[in-house]
Amino acid sequence: MSAPTGTVLSRLPQRIRLNLQAIVGRAYPRVVGANREPSWIFFEAILPLLGIAAYVFIYQALGDRAAAAIVGGMCGDHVCVSATEQAAYLAATKANVNALIGSTVLGGTMIAFWLNVLWSMASQLYWEKEIGNLQLYMMAPMSRMALLGGMALGGMFMTSVRATTTLVTGVLVFSVTLQLTSPALLLAVFFVTLIALYGLGMMLASLYLLWGREAFNLSALLEEPIFFASGFYFPAGGFARAGGLGRAVLTAATAIPATLGLDAMRQIIFPGAWGGTLWIFSPEVELAVLLVLAVVFLFLARRALAYLENLARREGRLTSRHQ
Amino acid sequence: MTEGLAGSARMHWRTFRFAAWLGWQMDSNWTEPWLFMVYSVIKPVAGAFILVLMYSIFALIGQFSDPSMFAFIYVGNAFFIFVGNTLYGTFQVIQADREWYQTLRYTYMSPISYYTYIIGRAASKVAVAGLAVLITLAFGVLALDVHLDVGWADIPPLLTALVLGLFCLISIGLCLAGISFMTARHTHGLAEGIPGLFYVFCGVLFPLTALPGWAQDIGRGIPLTYWFDLTRRLVLPPSTINTGLGFFNDTEILALLLASSLVFFLLSIGIFKLGEYWARKAGKLDMLTSY
């Protein structure tokens, strides 16, 4: 094998081709390999729907109790003054429950992406180290960003297929009424949210490279607390109504792309829900913030990867397993 | 004969003891004990917070508050921590040992009962779950005004129900472990999905009557439904919530739990052995499904 010849510029097309091949090569097993295992349909598309259903039925049960109280003559905290008021309260309760159920289905679907980012992006380099692939990646003549990019693209595709199945089934099973106002904006928010989320995953992957078994536990720790802070099962704007602590949680949660992404998607799909009192910002502003987050996370991922790869090499942690 | 039985019992006890120690070390020795304790309770408490926010937001937008319903949801969720931890603690052993540590083949070949080994490995997770349940309930009482009403007379049936419920859960976990011998790396799908199944059909977070008729029938066929109902009857004051299970008294529910625990125990042995046999036959006992 001969040494590379020519100027940096003349070698650029070859380097680009090589890195594109690396992206395709790393995405391939996630796109094709994973779908060769048909059991995923049950385990990763249908079973998660059950978890979502549990939260849906909470809203349903609360809605039933509220409706029973209204039928019993109570409109909020006072006795209904007329049949018209009673009917208005009943209709509002029904609309609120529909929007909350729809929000829950959407949030539950987006959980698939967050779990994919945690377990198949952030933890992946650590996992590759454990099974002995990392050293092979390090020796290959490609950018490590191409490797992470391939993982992200494959993960996005794989999870999108699963999430779409869950979403469609959820909307049909729970008879959610959607009022899609701007499909183009919805698609833009969705894809920018994904890029920002996977950018965050790429950054975390570099950090995890340095850690040992703490990485696994950190991923486990970033499940329920993030489901809570990002409002996967309720509109996160509700935090703003919960005093200073609630606002602090909300402010911190906006650094997680899922928070603003979900809020924007809910606004586009359920416009006017809850009188618009529980939204964080307008969808356009949220899209702009998400774009900034995407760029920042990708930039930080690149910097962190270079720095931590060097550190891991120096400290001899690149190939150390089970520690 | 007696000596053979005693020897077998010793082997099972030794397996359990060392597996429990191993499980505890694997779960906890990655960090300082205090940090491990914090880590162990953050997840369930965050799970409880999700419900608190769901309820608060519903109360806010619907101008409707229902403290007894909130207590129903909160206590159900607190005891559900046992379900998630116990099930995950058992069935994840197969895939963790097979794919992560790649030690399944060595453990499997050793002169132990692999069935008992899995129970031992799950023991530490069950213990941590117990602590998390206590902390979640205490938090509910102190910070969220959840009113518990447990008399001295309620404690024996509560403890009996807890033991039977855990026995049933471990048996179900072992059934899943048997299935895991044959499946790819689906730990997270299983961890999300199977507890989700119980979350929905057992009336953990809402009364069974909120479900459609056919789903209520499924719920009534699952022993954990009665476990949750009995637990709530014993720790919460009486309420107007119609659970759809009022036709059973406490003793009948305990008897039902005992019978179903035995059925699931036998089922777990059958499914575990079958999964083991099929995995060996198909050469899947130490397969890797990383992608």
Structural class of chain A: mainly alpha
One letter per element, helices H and strands E, the order of chain A comes to HHEEHHHHHHHHHH
Q: Please report the total strand number of chain A as a whole number.
A: 2
- Low-confidence segments of chain A, given as residue ranges, are none
As a whole number of angstroms, the C-alpha radius of gyration of chain B is: 20 Å
Describe this protein's structure.
The complex is a heterodimer of chains A (323) and B (291). Chain A has 323 residues and is mainly alpha-helical. Chain A has a domain at 111-314. Helix content of chain A is 74%, strand content 1%. Chain A contains twelve helices and two strands; from the N terminus they run ααββαααααααααα. A two-stranded antiparallel ribbon of chain A has the order 1-2. In chain A, helix 7 (183-210) packs antiparallel against helix 11. The two termini of chain A are 37 Å apart. Chain B is mainly α and 291 residues long. Chain B has one domain (2-282). Chain B is built from ten helices and no strands. Chain B is globular, with a radius of gyration of 20 Å. The mean pLDDT of chain B is 88. The interface between A and B is large, with 67 and 52 residues.
Q: Gist?
A:
Chain A is an all-alpha fold. Helix content of chain A is about 75%, strand content about 0%. The radius of gyration of chain A is 23 Å and the shape is elongated.
Keywords:
heterodimer; A: 323 residues; mainly alpha; B: 291 residues; 76% helix
Topology of this protein?
The complex is a heterodimer of chains A (323) and B (291).
Chain A: H1 8-33, H2 40-71, E1 74-75, E2 78-79, H3 83-122, H4 124-131, H5 134-139, H6 144-173, H7 183-210, H8 214-221, H9 224-229, H10 243-253, H11 257-269, H12 283-314
Antiparallel strand pairs in A: 1-2
Chain B: H1 2-28, H2 33-62, H3 67-100, H4 104-109, H5 114-143, H6 155-180, H7 187-201, H8 213-220, H9 223-235, H10 250-282
Helix pairs in contact in B: 1-5, 2-3, 2-5, 3-5, 3-6, 3-7, 3-9, 6-9, 6-10, 9-10
